[in-house]
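ingest -> validate -> predict -> emit
validate: passed (alphabet ok, no gaps, 815 aa)
predict: started
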Amino acid sequence: MKVSYQWLSEVVDLNDVSPTQLAQRLTQGGLTVDGVLPRVESVSGVVVGEVVTCTKHPNADRLHVCEVNVGQGELLTIVCGAPNVAAGQRVPTALVGAELPGGKIGKAKLRGVESQGMLCSAKELGLETKLLPKEQTEGLYILPQDAPIGIDVAKLLQLNDTILDIDLTPNRSDCLSIRGLAYEIAALYERKIDFALPARPQLGEASPVQVSIETDRCSRYDAQVLADLSDGPSPLWMQMRLLTMGVRPISAIVDITNYVMLEWGQPLHAFDLDEVHQQHIVVRQARPLETLVTLDGEKRELDPDMIVISDPDRAIGLAGVMGGENTEVTAKTRRVILESAAFDAPSVRRTGQRLGLRSEAQQRFEKGIDVVAIRAALDRATELYADLCGATVLGDAVSTARSPVSVGQEAIHVEFSPERCRQLLGAEINDAVMEQVFTRLGFTTTIEGSSWAVHVPTRRPDITREADLVEEVARLVGYDQIPSTLPTGATTTGTRSLRQKIHHVTRHVLIETGMSEVFTYAFTHPSKLDAMRLPDDSPLRKMIALSMPLSDERTVMRTHLLPSLAQVGAYNLAHGNGGGQIFEIARVYRPRRLPIAEQPQETTMWAGLWFGLRPASLGERARAFDFYDAKGCIEKWLEGFGLLSQAVFTRVRLSYLHPGRSAVVKVGDTVIGHVGQLYPDTATAMEVPAAIYAEFDLDELESLLNLRFHVTSLPRYPASLRDLAVVVRQGVTAAELLQAARDEIADRAHSPELLESIEVFDVYQGKGIPLGHQSLAFSFVYRAADRTLTDEEVTSLEEKVLARWKRDFEASLRA
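emit:
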């Protein structure tokens, strides 16, 4: 935001504060000043001159010889090449020796005629021409006829002003005005501000305009009717103020609204009263298919989420964003309705975003306005219209509110504890200093024992809680005045919770096995579950619908992770990636009942998908991923939690998994997940042929583990490794043999800890194996915590296991 130093100095006494010093103090107080720049480069020796005569140059077609009165008695002869020069004009005149941004002016002969200075254009004075009307940038910069002859142009045009470029944070909407900045500077320097409330016209007559509010997105709407307006350019001083602040001057009627907005922070808008049907203003939501041609000449299609200002027949403005062309103020306008209102900030923001519009008024409505300034700004503008445009006030202002609090609210009350403030800042600041800080800010304080009630004026909407007041104390005392101290209290070493440990181990182990983590949307479409062949009454089909979905493809909360991972896999295959192993740790959302009336069940899962070809490696060709690739990753994961020896894989029938190539995983009696190859129809529909899918419930695992995470010492005694291969019928599963082995060792050895682990490392059918049979090979690891096991002990355990297998499954030791 660009701010005029001269304007600020008229409101706050800054005689002993330079622009650079002010910028430093504002930055220290939390308002970062990005730059301190002169409005123009040095301009001196330029005065107001009147062109008395203007004749053609005798030796040049495009030059004129002018006699100029600069208030020094004698007329100066100046040669000028501007096409718009004419007698009777008052123009900036650079005398001999004058300093301009382009250099120093000296005497010169132009085609034989001596020139005693130069008549200046806006560009030669250093003015920002892009904000000026075209007629003021082509040729000389013509000054008003009442500009005093001989006066210093630098003073007249405020060229010696300094611009502060302030980078405001979004919460400091109060500083989007000279008034707000003045309060801030006064607080920082402990000074008073000269900013009285404007006089309020009291005519005792009813306003000729009627106002109705038909939407709860407008809390207040004030309107004042003005007549007998004489339009034309605004005074030079007002134009210069607007230019300094980066606003284009247009006409007196429009410039006054912009000037008051910059002064008070309250956006205003003027409607041509004669174009408002029935002299009735209606604030409402836009109607379906309604259109409005805005002031920029663009036809806008509106939607019902937008607030519009209308008369009984049509929209005449977009609330807080831009007015309509149908009630635009023109040179013919003699009567206006002046608007000052409070609109819903999010609604104004959405309207601007959807229509691609951005305005100074919109910026202020978005960030929040001061309700006290609504009427004050209206009165200030009314005062300026009367003084500068000769306006007549018709009736008292209309003030219409949706709720009484928006009219009468004067301050908010925030509880404050000085002791808590000292604790937060780590500094011993006494109560008197804190009270003085609030006084400097214009806050009032009611003290009752150790608790204070601080009354914050409505111009500071960013102050809502105690922490905000603590920040104000720190700002005004000075962050550099608060000593650095070490934190008090007991310090503890942070540690992961059980849930965090589970997620960490899961992520670490799966990545270690070669899998890649993905992150997908928690939203999906109900049709995505059709490929899983779920019955119509499946709980997974009960999905939570989104009231405002991101797109037509993501309308519900997901109840299963398979569709999300399959979409990633299909995308990779379609784009030339031959295959991959991916996993995701995410939540699924399953409502307890529909329509939803309570918090749904949110379960954290990890799911994996193995799709396409496994890359070739040393000694192994590229091949399709199979069930055992997935099983190996899962076993490694279980081993990370010390659960591998207790986990059992048994057959399962799920609609979306292959019935002969899938398993449920249990630890004891607890089901923690399942794994299997996708059912062929499911895999085809999801475009991941023959993919393997696994899904595990991490919340269930957490309940199972509870507080089982503990540190154990490294084993002191060596392990004994034995391999056994047996031949059994094809109907016998490895899981059955594993469980039987564990049970036998626990029963016979009276110590299940002797079996450290047991796993399958080979399954074979073919040559050398009887028809209808299979060979299963197991690796046993035995270890005792208190001694080295003897060969006799291990052999005895091995024989017991073989005997159990033979008795229960007719297993025979493979030769």
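The chain has six domains: 2-39+162-189, 44-156, 210-408, 411-480, 498-705, 720-813.
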